[in-house]
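User: Reviewer 2 asked us to show a designed sequence for the structure in our supplementary figure. I'm pasting the structure tokens here. Could you produce the per-position amino acids so we can include them in the response letter?
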């Protein structure tokens, strides 16, 4: 059976499974729509949380970043994993004990202010739409390559599937759909990794193959990679060009951004008890670790396979570069998507792949008759193309396509529900029209989710960057806006509503303005995105840390010169933190 037909079958079966689960788990109340009725088993919730958290950035883009950045790409591994631990220890149990539906609802009650709740909704919408843009781009990439349809067509199909199970099933449908999506994505990620690890090193465990010797060479994988990439003018795979402060800030922004992501936090409201929130956090970490310990090996193996495909002989030897007419089928197929391109600059009929940004190597390359790097490979295709590069069976490649779509749709659904609940529950029911009935609120939530899906599709069609980069921006916005007010709301009795509102606005506006200025999101690029122009040497991906610090400083400063929170709010904070009664949720 040909690859396209097999992919349609595998992806079609996965879609049928998701829709079937959505119909089975249709939400009939607002409690089921927002928090799945607070009756989800901790193990099930842990698996759903893992799928919600491991987005297209984790499945599609992270290993691609590691493949091209090497050691520098480890900031994503450290930041996202560390952030989940931070969320599990510092936020999840306390927010579950508080027992409300949404993060803005907690912020509105804790800071005794409808204005604070509205500002939190605004922050949430900015974060979620920035994040969902990356997911929809991931959907478009998979559809355009493996199902050989136009990007817009792929987005429309993906939007339709999300519409069915997010709008119909709400959090209840999404939870059980995400369990199925986790199973699909983790199998799709690990099976090719096992195949390729065994193919390259004879060791089937990717985590061990990462440190094993490459078959037929006697060289360890990382040593061989270092040798090959440096011969082509690239930086050593095990070093990084990023400054220490930028590595620190990106890692910290990803950590605290993870802890401030509303679509992950809301998952801990779906379990019956506070102890279940802790348990599901632990299970989620186990499920997440399976993919995250595999990703470094996947990135290294993908870079090795790509380089050895193009550079088949010694550097500088005209016979060492791949002939254009001999390029493998996988390159031709990815060329059709526009995500892999080459240009024969010196007209020799071969593909030169080297780092022409390295001035020292470019001078040497000129002696070889090279006129510049002729190959461009999008970071986001490496995980998806790796099984094709390694010439794995078609069923494995089809499985990877289904896994990539599952990863993107699982997170997109969670984000869209957060946007929906923010508008229907926090903005309409909680602020503007408090007298609306439960049925009206449920309908408003479904309409809001449908509108959000359309906007998400547009952002996927016109994304502001590659998947992991867009997601990093969302984490920065979460770090600068929501995380500080949540953490202060739990652990500080002195921060009041004026401080919280001012802090959120300052953190959000500063971080969004910085990112927009360098990345041209919604406005033309105002400042060239080079390290010499960055504030304190911090890139847009890490600037959320500065926004977070500003948020804290402004919140505490404004709180100092305004009235303290009322006594009942201070008692509320003490009640949230007290361990007594941790076995059952306390609703206020």
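Assistant: Here is a per-position design you can include in the supplement:
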């Amino acid at each position: 059976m040909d690859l396209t037909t097999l992919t349609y079958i595998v992806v079609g079966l996965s879609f049928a499974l998701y829709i079937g689960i959505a119909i089975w788990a249709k939400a009939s109340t607002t409690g089921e729509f927002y928090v799945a009725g607070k009756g989800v088993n901790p193990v099930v919730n842990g698996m759903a949380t893992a799928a919600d958290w491991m987005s297209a950035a984790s499945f599609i883009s992270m290993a691609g970043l590691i493949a091209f950045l090497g050691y520098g790409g480890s900031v994503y591994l450290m930041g996202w994993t560390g952030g989940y631990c931070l969320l599990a220890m510092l936020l999840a149990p306390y927010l579950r004990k508080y027992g409300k539906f949404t993060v803005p609802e907690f912020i509105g009650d804790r800071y005794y202010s409808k204005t604070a709740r509205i500002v939190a909704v605004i922050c949430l919408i900015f974060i979620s739409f920035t994040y969902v843009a990356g997911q929809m781009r991931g959907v478009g990439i998979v559809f355009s390559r493996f199902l050989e349809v136009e990007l817009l067509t792929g987005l429309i199909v993906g939007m339709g599937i999300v519409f069915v199970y997010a709008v119909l099933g709400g959090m209840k449908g999404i939870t059980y759909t995400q369990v199925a999506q986790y199973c699909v994505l983790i199998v799709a990620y690990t099976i090719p990794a096992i195949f390729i690890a065994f193919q390259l090193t004879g060791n089937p465990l990717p985590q061990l193959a990462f440190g094993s010797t490459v078959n037929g060479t006697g060289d360890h994988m990382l040593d061989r990679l270092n040798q090959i990439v440096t011969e082509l003018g690239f930086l050593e795979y095990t070093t990084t060009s990023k400054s220490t402060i930028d590595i620190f800030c990106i890692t910290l922004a990803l950590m605290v951004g993870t802890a401030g992501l509303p679509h992950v936090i809301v998952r801990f409201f779906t379990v019956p008890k506070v102890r279940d929130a802790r348990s599901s956090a632990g299970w989620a970490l186990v499920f997440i670790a399976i993919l995250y310990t595999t990703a470094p090996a996947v990135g290294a193996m993908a870079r090795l396979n790509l380089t050895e495909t193009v550079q088949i002989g010694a550097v500088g030897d005209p016979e060492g570069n791949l002939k254009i007419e001999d390029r493998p089928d996988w390159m031709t197929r990815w060329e059709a998507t526009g995500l892999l391109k080459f240009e024969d600059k010196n007209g020799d009929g071969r593909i030169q792949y080297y780092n022409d940004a390295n001035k020292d190597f470019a001078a040497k390359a000129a002696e070889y008759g090279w006129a510049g790097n002729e190959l461009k490979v999008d970071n986001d295709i490496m995980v998806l193309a790796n099984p094709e590069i390694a010439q794995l069976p078609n069923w494995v490649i089809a499985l990877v396509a289904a896994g990539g779509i599952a990863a993107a749709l699982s997170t997109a659904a969670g984000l869209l529900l957060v946007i929906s609940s923010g508008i229907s529950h926090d903005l309409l029911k909680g602020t503007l029209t408090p007298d609306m009935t439960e049925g009206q609120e449920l309908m408003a939530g479904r309409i809001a989710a449908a509108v959000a899906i359309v906007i998400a599709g547009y952002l996927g069609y016109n994304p502001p960057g590659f998947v992991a980069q867009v997601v990093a921006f969302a984490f920065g916005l979460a770090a600068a806006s929501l995380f500080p007010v949540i953490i202060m709301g739990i652990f500080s009795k002195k921060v009041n509503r004026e401080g919280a509102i001012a802090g959120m606005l300052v953190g959000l506006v500063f971080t969004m303005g910085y990112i927009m200025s360098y990345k041209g999101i919604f406005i033309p690029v105002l400042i060239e995105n080079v390290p010499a122009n960055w504030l304190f040497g911090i890139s847009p991906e890490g600037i959320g840390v500065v926004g977070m610090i500003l948020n804290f400083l402004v919140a505490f400063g404004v709180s100092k010169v305004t009235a303290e929170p009322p006594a009942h709010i201070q008692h509320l904070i003490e009640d949230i933190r007290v361990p007594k009664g941790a076995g059952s949720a306390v609703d206020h």
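For the response letter, you might also mention the following. Residues 579-588 have pLDDT under 50 and may be disordered. Residues 3-213+244-301+389-577 form a domain with the Sodium/glucose cotransporter fold (CATH 1.20.1730.10).
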